[in-house]
Amino acid sequence: MYGEYAYLNLCKEVLENGTKKEDRTGTGTYSLFGHQMRFDLSKGFPLLTTKKVPFRLIASELLWFIKGDTNIQYLLQHNNNIWNEWAFKNWVESDAYHGPDMTDFGLRSLEDEGFRAQYEQQMSNFKQLVLTDDEFAKRFGDLGNVYGKQWRNWETARGETIDQLQQVVEAIKINPDSRRLIVSAWNPEDVQPGRSALPPCHVLFQFYVVNGKLSCQLYQRSGDIFLGVPFNIASYALLTHLIAHECNLEVGEFIHTLGDAHIYSNHITQVTTQLERTPMEFPVLSLTSDQKSIFDFEMEDVKLEGYDPHPSIKAPVAV
């Protein structure tokens, strides 16, 4: 059985047993609470094959987190648009925006062709401004105290900062048997309105070393199973590989623990289509660089070999 069935079985369970719930976005979900998946990283890199998942977007987002960056300018420079909507929302709701009404742009762009053209034009304008105007990017491209900030520059009540990621990498080298190899993105102060564009969904991860292998367990409070979770699986698998590389360890397991695991009501057709497909073998990750530190890796240092997925399946993002 391919490792992908861990994910596909979650999809089936939510479709069959999930509870219909309302949510922040107004879209509605089918949800269950508490689920765990395990992926043996020595048996291939867990990038889903029942639909094409864009690995380059996952890699550039992870490097963005690792750098401690919170501004989408870096992502746009790497043709990565996955955080655009949250920054765009800040702009169109501000006094600086003077274009057509963009209220509920996510849903309206799906239902109204005329509005979709307006939305796409405004989004194009927004991206160009972020890329070319550093002052605009500083004001509207920054997402606040999201993952990169918490991982690399956690602020204490005394005004000090903690580089959690650097500390955990060093701790793995010095004391691999520690039970405190933890990085937290959930800062109760920073999840208050106005402090970050989106409170972190993947809130805490912990490393575990045994028999020369590094494993990682993620706790994710909220998981968009169709769009988000495939990214999260691959992202933390890649993070585990990078840290294992620096610490001269082999890779063990990635364990993904979910709180509210949900399928959006407008993703049901897409999930059903995906479940009709037969998984392929997972690809192989290759770190082609001589870089010793995870903080020195760039996009060209990370390669994927043997990825042969089914075609992509498009679905709307709930913002």
UniProtKB/TrEMBL annotation:
GO cellular component: cytosol
GO terms for MF: thymidylate synthase activity
Keyword GTP-binding: no
Keyword Cytoplasm assigned: yes
Compartments it resides in: Cytoplasm
Protein name from the UniProt record: Thymidylate synthase
Gene: thyA
Pathway it works in: Pyrimidine metabolism; dTTP biosynthesis
Stretches assigned to coiled coil: none
Organism (species): Pontibacillus halophilus JSM 076056 = DSM 19796
Entry similarity comment: Belongs to the thymidylate synthase family. Bacterial-type ThyA subfamily.
